[in-house]
Amino acid sequence: MPTTATKSASGTAPIPVATAAARVVQDDEPHGSSNSNGSSNSNNNNNSGPSKLHTNRQVRGAAVAAGVTGLVLLGPAAGLLAAGGAALATTRGRGTVGKAARATGDSCSDLGTRAKKFGRKHGVAEAASEGLRKGCHWASKKLGEDRRPKATTPNAAHTP
To answer: Quick check: pTM over 0.70?
Structure first.
């Protein structure tokens, strides 16, 4: 363990590097992941293990955002890989990448929730299904006209 000292946050007395690093690690952890005595769960000797850094909502949101982006930009295989990578970063990432993935997951999930509320309020699904029904009806009518033999009267053009 290094014994080099750094200045404390108040700048008055030097503190050991290990203590400073422990404070940085605690600041990077989500709320509720430290014990009541202020120490990190990973430094604790009990068997409870570290707390969960992510929610299922964040994982789904990050996977959807990355998957759609990968699909649009590079194709289906890239979309699948991007979705898996984002889910992995959300669940395993403790650094900047994990934080960004969790924030993206929250944002995408919020967007989906707002879109559902908007759709319910304005009847988007019903209007879209009605438009699709009308379009299919029109297309089947047009296709049906082309397949029917045209009625012709013999010598209709030559009648006096």
So the answer is: no
